[in-house]
Amino acid sequence: MHGEVGVIARDGEHEVEIKRSRFVCTVARVDDVAAAAAVIARVRKAGPGANHHCTALRIGDPETGEMTVRSNDDGEPAGTAGVPMLEVLARRNLTDVVAVVSRWFGGVKLGAGGLVRAYSGALAETLDAVGTLRRVRHRELLVAVPHDVAGRLEHDLRNSPYRLQDIDYGADVTLTVAVTEADRDAFGAWLAERTGGEAEALDAGTRYLYLP
């Protein structure tokens, strides 16, 4: 999990109708299980007339790589709702996400295979609608330079593959730059070339960026 995983680009909701049953899928980005439980509770409260609120979540620890996964069929036949939803999230390598598919039964039974297709399909369509981003691990580097150098360095950074995150104006100007582990040595050489070896990049820790 130290490499790239995905997250949803935004929270959202999407509805499909299958043989007169309504399936409303809600997805939200969450940091922990408690936040996911709050989303599930909110959806249940907002749709008290639904026959089922089936759920799936994947929440990862970025440092250890451990993934917490949970699913619930909420009264649907075992394995026909929550697990297929979880499989959709896993196939797309998504983390920090909870999905709830609420079903209003329309009178026509779908059968086990039909339920699997309905719940997984509703979630897949919702993910397509909200979009996804890559969560990429970067090192955050601090570069302090004199004021008379800062303007040119800022311009060069904005036209480089490295990501300028912040600028702090003090006695010197400190630029915060995010680079991937793979680009770190190249950035050091790039920085030395543009500052005559005068500037040093100090490591300020890990930062995760969400990229298209």
TrEMBL record:
Domain of life, source organism: Bacteria
Residue ranges of every copy of the UPF0029 domain listed in the record: 144-197
Impact N-terminal domain residues: 19-126
Organism: Amycolatopsis tucumanensis
InterPro entries: EFG_III/V, Impact, Impact_N, Impact_N_sf, Ribosomal_Su5_D2-typ_SF, UPF0029_Impact_C, UPF0029_Impact_CS
A matching Pfam family: DUF1949
Family, similarity comment: Belongs to the IMPACT family.
Signal peptide stretch: none
Name recorded for this polypeptide: YigZ family protein
